[in-house]
Here is the input.
Amino acid sequence: MFDVKKASARFGRRFFARSGAAAAALGLLALAASAPAAEPPIKIGVIGEASAVAGASITKAAQMAADDINAHGGVLGRQVEVVIYDDHSSAADAVRAFQRAADEDKVSAVVASYISEVALAIEPWSGRLKMPFITPGAASTDISKHVHDDYAQYKYTFHGWMTSAFIAQSICDFEHDMIVKDFHAKSTVVMSEDAAWTTPLDAQYLSCLPKAGLKVLDHIRFNPDTTDFTPIFNKIEGEHPDVITTGISHVGVQPTVQWHDQHVPIAMVGQSSQATTSTFWKDTNGNAEGVITASAAAPGVAITPTTVSFTEAYIKRFGDSPAYDGYTTYDDIHIIADAIKRAGGTDPDKMVDAMEKTNYVGTIGTVQFYGKSDEYTHAIKYGPGLVTGVVLQWQNGKQVTVWPRDKANAKIQFPTFIKSPHA
Amino acid sequence: MTGLQILIDGFAISALYALAAVGFTLIFGVSGFLNLAPGGIMLVAALIGWWAAGTLGLGVYPGTLVGVLAGVATAYLTYFLVVRPIQRSRKIPREETEIFVLTGTLLWGIMIQGAMAFIFSDNPVTMRPLIGGVANIFGVRTPWNEIMIAALCWIVIGLLWLLINRTPVGKSMLAASINPRGLTLLGFDLSRIYLLVWSIYGVLAGGAGVLLASFLGVGTANAGQLTASAFSIVVLGGLGSVTGSLIAAFVVGYLETVTAYLINPTLRPIPALLLLVVVVYLRPQGLLGRR
Here is the structure.
């Protein structure tokens, strides 16, 4: 036991006074140092595909969103920290990244991928690990159907972009409004890659295109590994449609360049995800001229008050315009932060409740999610006043917006080798 | 009409396959080693060519040249960093050197693919056409570029044939493929011959890569498939036989094209692979193989 008498005999009485004072001073210092100690940051895991043009937009936009939130004071006094993973376009790698994010890096939410196969692989894990998860770019309707069919298990999953069904519907609406009305087109061939997101896309196309005024002459689904599209274009040309309706994302450069080089005389309209980014012009050496694609937003068009400033800030920081999922990721990170604020913390169930009540004006429109009783539970609500996306066309190296009419800043123009549709 | 389209399309694809396969078979013929790097070399040539033509602003023709040079550089790197150290290693038993070269070049090819994807993204790139516009061949609309690519491939193959059969340098290469030891006894420097072969290989594979980028586009995801195609063509034609490779390139090229047009584009690679299985089963040395 500590013998004060012996100790004071050895060290002297003043020793205790001095050491006591020193200890007290140290204690005060320690207290002072720890008093403004920040609470731990809120971590959000972001799984993107660094080597893919669309996948890289996700991680970049996420970083921008976090920086913007922190510049405005963070969330509940805490900084937002983005933890980035690369899934190499592999569902297996994405699941491992998701598990690491949840178990080791202890994130509060995950934003992942534009590939439907990846999002669908992660979805059951968001249920098992009770980790709120939102995909900013995948499109398969199965993502939200699963939530509807087994709400208790899958409620942690949110679909932060339009489902394939709504993408197809928006393209049908556009084709009805413009391709049929202004260009008097009467028939089309649907050409899409064989992937998880195009199965519901094509199903919706086949149902809404006739209602839009276009007879569907053929429905071609090609292997996403296709490199030579000549036989496909050849076949389509033989059927004499007025327009080709596309559903491509995994491919983009090759079919577009070959379409141009071979002077296929039929316009391509629809969803071409790669064509939504500004690097597409360079990648195709300008052969993108005349290609029409749906997207979340386009440069220069103010869908909401924040769209244009976000686009410009992104271009300034990264050099290229955001792909469609850059806009959605930026919004989705804000939506998560907003939900955490309303939930008062990062408890997963409370976050889910808060996210369901989202009414957020982002860069792509006003974001609300469908509810338990709707068919596409936790998908973004589609419609005027909410989110409809825009349709853009590449003209002279720039993306111009052609639809909806009230947001359009240019008229549709086709290259000279296009013979149909003709105005 | 479709028949003529198939004829023309198949010819262009086959010519490209022939260019890549001939280089591949040359390496095997002279050095006795199979390598799995051709896809990687074609990829680098295509990407660097695109980058030089567009981003650096050099234009199509200089860009193409830069691409081919990049292909040659990659071939040299493959030889000096991967193949030669394995060939000369004292630690690897002689019987296993081939397997090590195969594995080493396979891994090297994967590394190239990963590095290129990191630098350029996995989006395919295309070279601008060397000649623009379309021609009308008896009613079939064919891009002039496609015709020119086929012509270029044949010119290069023709030059190669002249080199091998009519020049002293080429004849020493031929001799090296038949009996390397005999050649060294006659005072020829085998290592210089290897260097020459790898240079030619770089030019052929690099050229094929750049031309393929101009015709269809090339991306990092294609690298593995290109190697597999080149490999199966060379095995079909007979390892080491240049004529065999040429014939096999056309067989495979046309089989693929006919399948894509008449059956289904998705099933394109399958008949060629089935043929490969049949040939290897019935005649393992390939159509015209010697070993």
Q: What stands out?
A: The first strand of chain A starts at residue 42 and ends at 48. Chain A has a mean pLDDT of 90.
